[in-house]
Amino acid sequence: MIIAIDGPAASGKGTLAKRVAAHWDLPCLDTGLLYRAVARDVRARRLKLTDTWAAVAAARSLEPDSLQDPGLRDRTMGEWASVAASIPEVRAALLAYQRAFAGQAGGAVLDGRDIGTVVCPKADVKLYVTASPQVRAERRFSELQARLEPVTYEAVLEDIQRRDARDAGRQSAPMRPADDAILLETSELDIEAAFDAAVGLIKRKIGQ
Ligand code: CDP
After folding, report:
1. Which residue from 178, 181, 174, 179 is spatially nearest to 127, judged by alpha carbons?
2. Is a pLDDT exceeding 90 seen at residue 83?
3. I need a labelling partner for 111 at 20 to 30 A (CA). Which of 1, 57, 103, 167 fits?
4. How many CB atoms neighbour CB 77 within 10 A?
5. Could you give the CA distance from residue 12 to residue 184 in angstroms, rounded to a whole number?
6. Nearest of 21, 138, 142, 147 to residue 77 by alpha carbon
7. Best probe residue, ligand 1, of 80, 82, 149 (max atoms within 8 Å of C-beta)
């Protein structure tokens, strides 16, 4: 069973994906980490994120173990990732890894922006998780505060809106719900309620 969970920045799709994966005992891949790691590696070499050659080289030499790096969750990494993610050749270089992960025996849960549209267009279930920009900014602001990152709510809201516009507006694999995705609006839901709703939608879809 392949479950694709997409949605805009800080929509809670990562938390939801992990909980859903644990519920059905499936492996889970947060594909945002791949783009964040590419950005980290390009910047570590003091090269530009818009340097296609450097970004593709970083994507091709990505070590899966390096996805555990907690620094990937830093605020700047999200912004940098979105710049690197708009390069079609970078996306192409990361596709085989994501598809191999999805193709494991028994299935997998993947979360990102283009899982339902490009990476796994034949996924058994596709969820598109949304929430208002204000709610998403509040959630991300609390996460960053817990990580002791000095940032204001307003700056986080701006980050999210800029990133959403870039992710939805790019030519290659723009962020959008697949035609057969089920929308899950979580502005009014806490994580428990969002998880319960997701499980209900998935069960109905797979006929459990
Ligand atoms: O956690 P958050 O929603 O803030 O971001 P993320 O899922 O870690 O993704 C970081 C960035 O990577 C996004 O803004 C996208 O530009 C890019 N991304 C993508 O293009 N395609 C994916 N499947 C996943 C992430």
Report:
1. 181
2. yes
3. 57
4. 20
5. 11
6. 147
7. 82
